[in-house]
């Protein structure tokens, strides 16, 4: 049922995206809920299906680790409540199914510091109420039918609960997404085929202005040294739309804030930061409005070239967007799928789209996506984010892609990239210049153009050692700090580089990629 519900929601994903207005139009509610469910499905595919505790753990664990965005995190808690109810049973009968939906509602409300009616929580309450209503037949189908009926009633009332929904003339997007999941569960029992995807004719985000938006900030942390309640209190002053939840040693957080770098640095002191995502919602809003106006532009001239870039780290994402790129979230340890890249290419209005994979492990997926697009896309084989930046600097939407490829490729090759991260295991490696590096797990390591060249010391010492060894007269050094580094750390390193290389222009930005202390480019 949950596997099929994932596909059912996928059909309506863009429709749910188009409804989103609350609490700020970040525009990806359907996508975030679908990605969360896809993570659940991956866990279900590897669990013991003959063990109810195994199935329940797959639902809860998969939802938490895969939760994306405000809606995805709340959905993960709804699923956690559901899974906690069924884990100690041998079979799910109608009474258990009813209790599971009731527990889902309770856990969902409990995860939000300031629950707001007119949201997915309201619809989850309606589903729980409906599941408990008297029914003509005591079957699972009967429970789901009643749950959908009452859930729809409350979903239809959401515009009267939230002024933003009434202003845009829409129902709540997260609530609609949740009902699609319940619909999918019922369709699985009935053996119904997937419906065709609806045509999207308008976007609720067109009703709102940019100035109210901030940064949608998420993190996933392990080995937390403080209780979830304490971490929630630490994060709370930074903004609103706050969710901090956890299970099995992991802590997942979501907040809308104007201080993403300070927030991540604060949280990072209390555990091991595994993954972060920061989206500039005003830029995302502009992107959505561009999609909304696509039909109106259909008769206008389509630009010769578009750009798709794979990146993570809000500073890097913002930079690539400024070059006109559509972003595919991903990179080291979080490689996007071929479908992710194909979807991004299809969303760009251009005669031909240039793809920048920006990681050697993404290159094959990008090339496969290019094949599937049958001539509409071309890949420039950028193997680092630095090469991607160099290529993107030479992109122009007004020039045919065929005329851009050589120049962008040459520009990519001219950029040297340093990456500073931590060793994942103990080893010793002989590097190109003949030195043998003895590396212990957790040591700082430095890579130049994706090849190991340095180990040991602090992250800042790693950057300086690589610069001293490999600087060859470049004019600009750009430093991106990772989520575990503070603004003070970044400023101090920038000053040190300027003092050591006074003829070089140094640029510094927060929002580097996950898992890296620093990413440095030399041009």
Q: Say how many strands there are.
A: 16
Neighbour order of strands in the largest sheet: 13-12-9-16-14-15
Distance between the terminal alpha carbons, to the nearest Å? Answer: 53 Å
Overall helicity: 40-55%
**Principal-axis shape:** globular
Name the poorly predicted regions.
Answer: 22-27, 204-213, 284-300
Mean pLDDT: 85
Largest sheet, strands/sense/barrel? 6 strands, mixed
Rg from alpha-carbon coordinates: 24 Å
- Figure out the total of helices: 20
Structural class: alpha/beta
Strand content: 15-25%
Question: What would you say this structure looks like, in words?
Answer:
The protein has 20 helices and 16 strands. It has helices at 2-11, 13-19, 29-46, 52-66, 69-86, 94-111, 120-131, 140-161, 163-168, 173-190, 228-235, 260-268, 281-292, 314-322, 338-346, 363-372, 385-392, 401-413, 459-470, 487-500, and strands spanning 215-222, 239-247, 250-257, 272-280, 305-311, 325-329, 352-356, 377-379, 416-422, 427-430, 436-439, 444-448, 451-455, 476-481, 505-510, 518-522. The chain has a six-stranded mixed beta sheet, sandwiched between helices. Strands 2-3-1-4 form a four-stranded antiparallel beta sheet, with helices on both faces. A four-stranded parallel beta sheet has the order 6-5-7-8, sandwiched between helices. Helix 1 (2-11) crosses helix 10 (173-190) and helix 15 (338-346) packs across helix 16. The relative contact order is 0.09.
């Amino acid at each position: 049922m949950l596997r099929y519900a994932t596909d059912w929601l996928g059909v309506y994903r863009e429709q749910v995206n188009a409804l989103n207005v609350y609490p700020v139009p970040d525009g990806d509610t359907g996508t975030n809920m679908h990605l969360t469910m896809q993570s659940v499905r991956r866990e279900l595919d590897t669990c013991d299906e003959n063990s109810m505790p195994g199935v329940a753990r797959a639902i809860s664990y998969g939802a938490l680790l895969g939760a994306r965005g405000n809606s995805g995190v709340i959905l993960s808690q709804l699923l956690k409540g559901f899974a906690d109810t069924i884990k100690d049973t041998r079979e799910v009968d109608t009474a258990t199914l009813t209790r599971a939906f009731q527990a889902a509602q309770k856990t969902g409300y409990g995860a939000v510091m300031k629950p707001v009616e007119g949201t997915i929580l309201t619809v989850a309450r309606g589903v729980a109420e409906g599941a408990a209503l008297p029914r003509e037949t005591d079957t699972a189908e009967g429970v789901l039918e009643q749950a959908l009926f009452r859930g729809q009633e409350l979903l239809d009332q959401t515009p009267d609960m939230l002024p933003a929904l009434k202003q845009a003339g829409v129902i709540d997007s997260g609530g609609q997404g949740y009902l699609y999941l319940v619909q999918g569960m019922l369709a699985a029992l009935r053996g119904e085929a997937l419906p065709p995807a609806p045509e999207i004719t308008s976007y609720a985000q067109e009703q709102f202005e940019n100035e109210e938006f901030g940064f949608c900030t998420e993190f996933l942390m392990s080995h937390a040294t403080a209780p979830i309640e304490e971490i929630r209190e630490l994060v709370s002053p930074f903004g609103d739309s706050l969710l901090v939840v956890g299970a099995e040693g992991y802590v997942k957080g979501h907040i809308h804030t104007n201080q993403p770098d300070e927030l991540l640095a604060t949280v990072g002191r209390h555990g091991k930061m595994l993954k972060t995502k920061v989206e500039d919602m005003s830029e995302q809003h502009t992107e959505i409005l561009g999609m909304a106006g696509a039909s109106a532009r259909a008769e206008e001239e389509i630009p010769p070239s578009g750009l798709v870039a794979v990146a993570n780290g809000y500073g890097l994402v913002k930079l690539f967007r400024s070059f006109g790129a559509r972003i595919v979230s991903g990179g080291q340890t979080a490689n996007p799928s071929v479908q992710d890249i194909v979807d991004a290419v299809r969303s760009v209005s251009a005669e031909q789209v240039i793809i920048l994979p920006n990681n050697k492990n993404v290159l094959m997926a990008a090339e496969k996506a290019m094949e599937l697009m049958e001539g509409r896309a071309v890949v420039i084989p950028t193997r680092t984010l630095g090469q991607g930046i160099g290529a993107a600097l030479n992109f122009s939407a007004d020039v045919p892609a065929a005329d851009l490829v050589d120049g962008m490729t040459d520009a990519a090759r001219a950029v040297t990239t340093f990456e500073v991260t931590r060793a994942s295991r103990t080893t010793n490696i002989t590097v190109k210049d003949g030195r043998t590096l003895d590396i212990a797990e957790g040591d700082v390591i430095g890579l130049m153009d994706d090849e190991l060249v340095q180990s040991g010391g602090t992250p800042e010492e790693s950057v300086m050692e690589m610069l001293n060894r490999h600087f060859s007269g470049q004019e600009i050094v750009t430093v991106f700090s990772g989520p575990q580094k503070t603004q003070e750390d970044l400023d101090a390193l920038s000053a040190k580089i300027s003092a050591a290389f006074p003829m070089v222009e140094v640029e510094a930005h927060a929002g580097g990629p996950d898992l890296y202390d620093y990413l440095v480019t030399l041009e």
